[in-house]
Amino acid sequence: MNDLRDLYEELILEHNRNPRNYPKKPEGTNHSAHGFNPLCGDEFHVHLRVEDGVVQDVGFEGAGCAISTASASMMTQAVKGKTVEQAEELFSNVHALLTDESAHDTSDPTELVGKLSVLVGVKDYPMRVKCATLAWHTMHAALDDQRGTVTTE
Amino acid sequence: MSAAGAVSHRPPDALSPGLDLDGIRADFPILHQEIRGRPLIYLDNGATVQKPQVVIDTVSRFYREGNANVHRGVHTLSQRATEAFEGARAKVQRFINAAHSREVVFVRGTTEAINLVAQSYGRTHIRSGDEVLITELEHHANIVPWQLLCQQTGASLRVAPIDDQGDVIFEEYVKLLGERTRLVAVSHVSNALGTINPVRRMIEAAHEHGAPVLVDGAQAAPHMAIDVQALDSDFYAFSGHKVYGPTGIGVLYGKAALLEAMPPYQGGGEMIRRVTFEETQYAPVPFKFEAGTPNVAGVVGLGAAVDYVCGIGLEAIAAHEATLLHHATGALTELGGIRIIGTAREKASLLSFLVEGAHAHDIGTIMDHHGIAIRAGHHCAMPVMQHFGVPATARASFAMYNTLDEVNALVAGVRKVQELFAL
What is the CATH number of domain A4-142? Predict the structure, then answer.
């Protein structure tokens, strides 16, 4: 993967320019978590309103690099309307896709996570994987009602 | 064609007649490699500089031919190792123009040097109600040890502010000096902004209030000749790895009278004269502060590094780096959409900047894709970032072996960032 465009795909750049569900804390938010990577300074709050086991609304606040911002934006789009179980499964798949060598080789990422597979370009830049996964871990922590701050560093 | 662009057509070694740039580059084996299919352009010298072959060889030869513990064996190898170790101390003494070699204490690096002064000098001289004065542009290594000291003693930490260029506001600094000021700690050169502080004047002002001054020279020692006597600095700290030496070795200079009156920092072997279970008599300085087996290979390597730097000449190095900085600043400014963080009147060879619409880490990754190593982050100076209201900056920092062509590649990389992140 040699072209920088593979990492900074138009979709990522576009989400960075116009993040969805941002900055937003949905009314009736009942799950929130704080994600912070102190070394690089990326910091997000992820908020979800979950009713009857379904993510009815989701938003995020904070600031970070293009990779972390686009990933957060795409995450909110991806989990909105999903059941908590589906959202958790997506989290596991994205996490595996970005961190597990074998996941990329043995399965088609688009089958696994749809257009989120553009994030896979980050694997060529190991120092940046933490950026792409921050919002996902934060969402997971929010659904799980974990206290404290999430970090992927 | 811009004026900055025109400069690039000169051969690299024509820009600084005092410097044999091709010869210097040949001395650094690590520079001759490709990163992501492109020639490495190393512009992260503020983090650490690369090592010339002579330093690598000196460390290697020490382990192959001269390794032994120091100051304790009667055998020939130990005597040789001790001579090499103490020989390096004398080289460092000359490098910073200390009056005596015993004023040179070997430590792990700048951070340990500052902690040593905070804990040894600080805890015996600073009490509740006293003040330690630092500046707003300090990096964490010159903030946190003083915070710890203040927590331990009940003293308070005062901070001299900087202006929006990144200069310490001298009048404010002077106002903060008072009868409660027991110690001043200030960077010679800011690692995040490049500001060269007027340390000579700052020391003079502090001394009028009887306060000794520690100068953090981590970013200064590689770029300018240091004369601790001319500065009249009480303590001066720097790291070996930033002056072309090995990692894990650094120097604390202290005036002999101060060091002699200070209690040890750590206890152990090497730092003692006589030990019984009732009491211990300490060795004289500098050994009192060098408990345990020291980093002998690191010290010997540092000695070779100091020789190498002095052989090239710090004046020539400074002139060359100033040319690079000037060229980079001009070319980036010309691009437009660039915010330079740190525009002090006197700057050393580093450039912190932001590209409109792009986060510093994205800049760092795009540069890396082009084989260019720069720093992206808060530079361990979060308060500086807060002053300028940014989470992080991209930082290009130059060393003696960098060329104008490399600066032009940096500028081309920034242009690429602008294309990708065009709003």
Answer: 3.90.1010.10
